[in-house]
Amino acid sequence: MAMDNGNGNGMSSFEQRWLEGPALAQPGFAQPPVEFEAEPPRSAIPKVVGILMIVFSSLGLLWSVVTLLQAMAAAGHGGGAGGVLLVFMLVDLCIGFLHLTAGLRAISYKQSAIGLAMAYGWIKIVMTMAWLLIMYGLLGRTGGGDGAVIGIVFLIFAIIMLAWPIVVLSLMSRPAARASCVNF
User: Fold this and answer.
1) Residue 114 sits in which domain range?
2) How many domains does the chain have?
3) How far apart are CA 142 and CA 66, in angstroms?
C-alpha cells in the first residue's frame, strides 16, 4: 500500500521520483540544454551540376565511342578527314572521362570538383572551337558554293556545343559553389 507523502496524489516520494525521472527528481543530475552551432546550409549548385555532368558525360562518352569506331573505319579506308576525326574523338574521349570525374567529385562536394569542372569547361570550349574551325576548313574546300549554309549550320552547332561548358564554368565558379566543396 502506498503511503501519501503529503502532496495529495496518493503516491510515495519514491513513486513520484520514479515517474518524474532522475533528472527532474534529483537536481544534481539535471543537464543544461545542449546548443549546437548551426552550420550554414551547403549550396546545391555542385550537386545539381554534378548530376547533370554525370548524365551528359555518359551520353558524350557513348557518342565518342560510336564516333571513334566510325572514325577508325574511315581512317582504315583511306579517308582524309578520318584521321583528323580519329584524333579529335580520342581527345574527346579523354575529355568525357574528365567530365565524368568532375561530376562524380561534385556530387560528393570534393575540393577537386571545382578545378576539374573548370578544366573541363575550358578544355571543351577550346576543343570545340578547334574542331569547328578545322571541319569548316575541310568542308569549305569541298563544299563549293554552299559556304553560307555550312557557316550557319556550324554557328548553330557551336551554340549547342558551347552552351553546357559555359554553364558549368559560370555555376561552378560562383562563391557559393566554391564554399560548398570542402570535402577531401
Assistant:
1) 45-174
2) 1
3) 25
